[in-house]
Predict the structure.
Amino acid sequence: MSGVWDAIVIGAGPAGMAAATTLAEGGMRTVVFDEQAAPGGQIHRAVERNARDAALSAVLGSDYAAGAAAAARLRESGADLRFGTSVWRVDTDRSVWTRAGAGIVCHKANALVIASGAMERPVPVPGWTLPGVMTIGALQILLKDAGLRPDGRLVLAGCGPLFYLFAAQCLQAGATELVLLDTAAPGNVLPALRYLPAAMRGRGPHYLWKGLHLLAKLRRAGVKIHRGVSGLQIQGSRRAEAVAFNAGGRPGRVECDIVALHEGVIPAQQIARSLDCIHEWDELQLCFRPALDRSGETSIPGVFIAGDGGGIVGAQASAHAGTLAALAILRRADRLPDAEFLARHAAARRGLGSHMAIRPFLDRLYRPRREVLEPADEVVVCRCEVVRAGDIREAARQGCIGPNQMKAFLRCGMGPCQGRMCGPAVSAIIARETGQSPAQTGYYRIRPPLKSVTMAELAGARAEE
Amino acid sequence: MFRRVEAPPSSSAGTDTFLFETREIPFRPGDSVAAALLAAGVAAMRDSPVDGSPRAPYCMMGVCYECQLEIDGRQNQQSCLVKARAGMVTRRQRGARTIA
């Protein structure tokens, strides 16, 4: 087998599964890389295995289980699936360097679909580096991947769809000592209502109904909910022991064994940034996203981004985005007649639009507070190098002009996570201090290796043959 | 800190284990090393190379690098991305990786 593929897809979540299935079914020699052991991405993590587990399936619900159909279609599509495989370097000529058990291999393709999805927005608050503090997504991954649910006193702090969904899943899984700290700002409601008429289109009402159902379920269960929460502080010496907060002006404190944070999700930018794709600041989602055309093609020809990696759209819309990218690639390779391309492209665009109708309403309603993007001086922003928000402010005041110079000044973004956890806050703090927009401030310049590799592995690198 | 959604098996006989420091850690097929450690009540997995503070998994999806361990002699391994295998020898990642 030659090292050159017709198409490479990075990531086997909803967007990657749809893209790879469409490409392979269209006759293209397609390879898929994913760090996990099976298809599904984080949203449908371990969906194939859990289909046989009645107890877990009852907890995780039907939207989760629906991922099994996409995974089955992917497996039948003929795409070459490489799991347990990290992508640590991508070049603008569409070379993709992977690391797996077999070592480092360089693959090349005529077209590349990056479907690396989303990550949770980091929530830098005092004490967030303590053991016992995780993201809500991390707890949900433990539930999906290992059937583990938090035991003992659990505090969930945050807002947004996943916050309420996971709270309901915890109840379903038998958690009893649960306290919710709802950080949604009451001041978000009025501005969000502006987007409500648009949210009544397409699949919008379905999502709204689902959300109301979740909220009612939590209310019926009598879960303790503090609303209008801000000023989170996680206390403890060697691990999280309590959470202090402010709820609508009143101080509160809850003792806990585990605390989980969630302030929505943002695109995983690492690969697109390393390629120097043009990025834009999304003022509604408060994050950077790559500039894409209607099929998801980036500023680099032949490089597509599909799904949440191109701006947060959600799982169902991501699948449509994956299809759109694949159709454009098939069309360009002359593997799809014009009429069929136009019909399928239009259908996928309609599907995408239908699932996107709710998005601006949700984005505005659950817009994170300023303190999430620009934490107080004493808060550790860069976990790897232990750099505090105040250090970054001080350096910016002394004339540090941007995130990349900040690396040289303070080493923020230079630890093992390579800025994934501190990048958003570092850019936001610098923007505030310099009076520039986030777009003008920009983001870290990301360079390979995007994942850790050893010199020995590099020495053994080869092109796939 | 965590418990399995299904009832635990009545006996631990037959359960595979790996070693974490001096402790035998049971796991289920498909568990990541990080998940098995959390299930066994292990709180901290690495010490910050900068200030020595204890760290534990934050994201469980390969982003935060707080779950790094020494696994079978290899340092700085993201334990949330490595499946547990019987007989593995794992240790806390203490400080920065040493370069031999």
